[in-house]
Amino acid sequence: MSALRRFLRTPEAVAGAILLAALIAMALSASLLFPGDPQAIAGPALLPSFQDWSLPLGTDRLGRDVLAELFHGARTSLAVGIAAAAAALVVGAVVGTLAGFAGGLVDEVLMRITDAFQTVPSFLLALAFVSVVGPSLGIVVIAIALGTWTGPARVARAEVLSIRERDYVAGARVIGMHPLAIAFREVLPNALPPVLAMSSVIVAAAILTEAALSFLGLGDPNRVTWGGMIAEGRAVLRTAPFLSIVPGIALVLTVLGVYLAGEGLVETTAVRRGLS
Amino acid sequence: MSGFTISRRTMLSGSAMLLASTAIPTPGWVQTPKKGGRLVLAADSEPRNLNPAIVASNGVFFISSKIVETLAEASYDGKDGLAPRLALSWEGAADGLSVTFKLRDGVKWHDGKPFTSADVAFSALQIWKPLQNLGRTVFKDLASVDTPDDLTAVFKFAKPTPFQLIRNALPALSSVVPKHIYEVGKIEDNPANNAPIGTGPFKFGEYKAGQYYRLTKNTDYWGKDEPYLDEIIYQVLPDRTSAASALEAGEIQLAAFSAVPLADLDRISKVPGLKVITKGYEGLTYQLVVEINHRRKELADVKVRQAIAHAIDKDFVVKTVFLGYAATATGPVPKNDPQFYTADVPTYAFDVAKANALLDEAGYKKGPDGKRFTLKLLPAPYFNETKQFGDYLRQALAAIGIDAELVNNDSAAHIKAVYTDHAFDLAVGPPVFRGDPAISTTILVQSGIPDGVPFSNQGGYKNDALDALIAKASETLDASARTDLYKEFQKAVAADLPLINVAEWSFISVARDTVGNIANNPRWAVSNWADTYLES
Questions:
Q1: H or E segment at B318?
Q2: In chain B, which residues have their Cβ closer than 8 Å to the Cβ of A41?
Q3: Nearest CB neighbour to A39, from listed B266, B395, B408
């Protein structure tokens, strides 16, 4: 309860939480407010914003409702962001724990693999992966996770290195627990908080990467994505700039919201840990 | 001649003066061509191989047609729609076994050597027939080329070949390259492929990758007083949105091949000093086509194909996807073709109810979720319009209960998926009509084509009657009988729908008012521009 109060005391965290809540509300209400296919042709093409109140944000080059696309796009962005971050955190935590706890050759091998992934810019990695395998939502999630799991892996390893020397770990060894059981039941849960603290940055980066991939035409074409909407609008940037601006603003607000809320959360937990 | 001296002085007195002089309003239609000046235009792709005799494609012609000339060029008012270039006349024998070309006298290659019939014979036998993408089909029966004198070339065919086809193929397929340059070494590796040597009004200057191509005036050109321009610069602007701003800023004077996006044309046409030109591409018609994989059992049923044809609102496609800069299609020959087109074919009006009824009749009832079956749809990535039509088609199919899943690929992956792996159910393609159905149109529906040939029938469609019709037309020598056979061909294709023709479109040029003699032939953007000029 006091953590919540502390969280609410930081203004940027509140702003972030409101933005994030709005985004989640958009994603959840998308199929209620705009049932059916958001890519269905709803009216005349290139209708400007705020002219026809049944299509408040206007329509794109084929006459699709921009507002409906925006709501359904929130869903894709959020799904990709959370799924990619979750995948990156799970893989990173497992790899980091194994490397840190086992040490020796296993540590060497796993950390060199991590290095190898870290030397390639994560966006290029995602780009290469999607262009080889072909764009679909699952592939995009894997592609983004592929470039982002290394950060959590390094942080988890560093935590584990210090935790594995603690007394309770030695105790667990003495009572004959399996090393893997010690690693994942005793060590990993205690190493998690700093890893989880990275989640907001990873979610924000994943949303941006997904948008960039869609912008380059490597998103899932069967789903509305904000990046895809910006790319669509680019061809008519001079005549209908709102087509790029509207999803662009949504993207900025989302990333800002995720980041601020994450920062607030980190600060709250840091304060608590510092006090305890 | 006063115009000549004035413009020359203006040119010599430097670019500041030139800029100032463009500000003086001059009515564009009473001008006689002026000499001098540099034309700067937008280029959106950078072909590496610039030899039009090997790569007969519009991207290559756009640059190299000014350097390397063909035997004849398309023309609005010439006999059979042709105007002489390197050949002065052409005549086919009644038996279809030979065609005689009389060549132009006094033509010199850019390196000073004279142009003779030996160059024509060499180009035809060593390049067009064995190496050229389109020439392989048209010149497949070419056996030899006799050169009785320096200015006569007689093409001898092993099998009767319709003269009408050879004639229609001249503008795109007959680029003549110098024998003395190409006879040493392997033709594909010749350095002249990247720095072409020809007889045209402009010489190849230089190429800076990612920046520009520069062509310079050929002072020894055979055309009297031609060319008018001193230089042509192709400014590489791969981003389509930048061409419009470059035109407005006066950095370029011309953007051909729809380098300015269709959506910007309305705005740009109102900018003073710029004009939007829709003429000059009649000989380069692109067709928007739904390619069908007949290996899918649902699509092998003609009723399903007819249902899809009824589900497409062609007027909507022309109005929304092409913003009106296109025409609806009725069959495999475009409406603007003067020789072969017939409107007398089965048509498919936009009618969702009828499409649904046809699908029910074919036995594909809607499931509880409103869907009949799922298809994979691959829109070709080459044009914005093909991609957008893919988005539209998905919606149009959803309206008749067909769930289409879009698959996006880059160009190389798309060609492999559709034409080699056949990993598609429906594809959106932009084939080109090149003045004669036998050049690149019949191949879209004819059977027996090996896997991997791009822009051909790779949908597994086989129709013996249609194959027989195509074979018969390819050996019919009489032009009007041949034309009639191709009219029948259009009817057969429209009735059985091996593919669905949706629309036909061409390109748009945007130019400064000062550029003269634009769009004066049906292949203007890929012609030699000897008479193009700049008003000062």
A1: none
A2: 392, 395
A3: B395
What is the count of residue pairs from A and B with beta carbons less than 8 Å apart? 58
Pairwise CB contact (< 8 Å): A240 & B240: no
Q: Which of B382, B391, B400 to mutate to test the interface with A (most CBs of A within 10 A)?
A: B391
Q: Which domain holds residue B147?
A: 68-193
For B274-323, how does the pLDDT look when each residue is reduced to its tens digit (9 = 90+)? 999 988 888 889 999 999 999 999 999 999 999 999 999 999 999 999 98
Write out pLDDT tens, residues B168-195.
899 989 999 999 999 888 888 888 888 9
Say how many domains are in chain B.
3
Q: Residue B330's domain is classified under what CATH number?
A: 3.10.105.10
Nearest Cα residue in chain B from A47? B320
**A112 pairs with which residues across the strands?**
none
Are B270 and B303 in the same domain? no
Query: Are the C-beta atoms of residues B302 and B496 closer than 8 Å to each other?
Result: yes
Which of the 8 DSSP states describes residue B321? I
Å between B133 CA and nearest CA of chain A: 28
Query: Structure tokens of A103?
Result: 């040490």
Measure CB to CB from residue A237 to each of B241, B390, B398 and give the nearest one.
B241
- Could you please state the CATH topology (level 3) that the domain comprising A76-224+258-275 is classified under: MetI-like fold (1.10.3720)
A61·B395 Cβ contact <8 A: no
Phi, psi of B232, deg, nearest 5: -125, 130
Concatenated DSSP letters of chain A: -HHHHHHHHSHHHHHHHHHHHHHHHHHHHHHHHS-S-TTSB-SSTTPPTTSBTTBTT-B-TT-BBHHHHHHHHHHHHHHHHHHHHHHHHHHHHHHHHHHHHH-HHHHHHHHHHHHHHHHS-HHHHHHHHHHHH---HHHHHHHHHHHHTHHHHHHHHHHHHHHTTSHHHHHHHHTT--HHHIIIIIIHHHHHHHHHHTHHHHHHHHHHHHHHHHHTT-S-TTS--HHHHHHHHHTTTTT-THHHHHHHHHHHHHHHHHHHHHHHHHHHHHHHHHH-
Q: By the CB < 8 Å criterion, does B374 face chain A?
A: no
DSSP type of residue B70? B
Lookup: tokens for B160: 């009767």
- Say what the ipTM of the complex is: 0.83
